[in-house]
Amino acid sequence: MTTTQAAPQQQTATPATIGPRIEVFGPAIPRSAEILTPEALEFLTELHRRFAGIRHERLADRQRRRYEIGNGRDPKFRADTQHIRDDAEWRVAGPGPGLEDRRVEITGPTDPKMTVNALNSGAKVWLADQEDATSPTWHNVIGGQLSLFDAIRDQLEYTSPEGKEYRVTAEQTPTIVMRPRGWHLVEKHIRYVDAHGQSGAASGSLVDFGLYAFHNARELVARGRGPYFYIAKLESSEEAKLWDDIFTYTEQVLGLEHGTIRATVLIETLPAAFEMEEILYVMRDHIAGLNAGRWDYIFSIIKNYRGRGARFVLPDRSEVTMTVPFMRAYTELLVKTAHKRGAHAIGGMSAFIPNRRDPEITRRAEEKVRADKNREANDGFDGTWVAHPDLIPVARAEFDAVLGDRPNQVDRQRDDVEVTAAQLLDVHIGRDVTEAGVRENISIGIRYIEAWLRGIGAAAIDNLMEDAATAEISRSQIWQWIHQDQSTAEGTRITREWVQELVRETVAGFDRFPGDRYDDATELFEDVSLGDNFPTFLTVPAYSRYLVDL
Fold first, then answer.
1. Is the pLDDT of residue 16 over 90?
2. Are 53 and 35 in contact (CB under 8 A)?
3. Taking the model in full, what pTM does it have?
4. Which of 179, 262, 475, 517 is catalytic?
């Protein structure tokens, strides 16, 4: 490997050395030296040397594809990979140790308190989320790695500022599946300098994956589990192949048997829905399953078709349920495709959460979640997500009723399902945009961004669990409704000026508190929802503008 240069406790890099290297600019964090070791940074350097250039090529491919869709070229099932779909013989690696039964998975950020709660939750799997449920402050990025490092070694303890102690007490803890950031995100507290002296922000994906794998892969194997990952935001099998190459290289460096690493890929973008079999194929030695990432999938449809006319306009967010035809087509195809190749199909997260102080809110949340999980289990899904520990028994009961003692239902082939490209693209729902829907998007969008700017990546808002994906839907719908000249059911034309009035009215009604970030959140929300240009992700300008001080 190549030489690295690190300055994990200072704000400016040390003088350059010859050869590729990693430079760390993040401020001092207790115990960060345990994560940012010279050996770990050497591994990050080599990951960037080998794979950063290909990452940039894949991101350029995304931009071209988005341009083509925006100009009338719809995605379709690929002709050049027809032979992969027609070959009935190949199968994927399937679950690794501890992933055989995934009937209920809990999702959440990786701060110490949430890590302890997840490990005590009784779920089969914990999605340890460094992506949409984590605000990527430097403290959260490195602190999350420390939480996972300690949790894997049974040494995690946490005492809150109020003095409450958190300890892992469960006899059996969930299998950890870590979700690194998507290919589009960078880590600006770490820079990669190539052999020619050119430097740039490190890949958030490679930083999250690399630090976790380097420190924990061998320890996990020794404990009878393995290094498992949720892979987010993929848009093509070529992007999946890049991850597979990274897995293979990592196994070689760390002395792991080929196929030890297992991935579950979120199908949460419209282009990926047309390449599910191809994604499984290129990752066949390392893939355990596919997940229906419903909220990002809706966002992806809005993003790609935002300028294609009124027939691609979706109504209020609350009306875009899992039972509308295009969402049914997407999830049915996912189950059929996964099971055909021996992979798990994991359902998505219902946003409803209980309120321990309000029994009626809890009753309604449980009713909604029960119906959602009943549909998933009977459709053939092998497991599902929840965002709150109190919902685990509700979800588990629905999957227990279908699975019984079986760990999964991969053997259930959905040969009855036939999904066409037209069905995936038919987003007509037949409902109106309402003023209440516009107001809800404004309120949720600003409140979530405000929490995100304070380092909170998953926020309970109006008894719903909101993360970056749901905030993306809120702001992108506003943008599309304005640019497609929509009017509400009440007859009000949705204009930039009207939305600005509603923003001012909404913010005036918030309960302000010392240190809140509502002013910044409002400014950002207006930029990403009312501007002429459409940022591909709101977290990109938010991160550069507010979370990085270099």
1. no
2. no
3. 0.95
4. 179
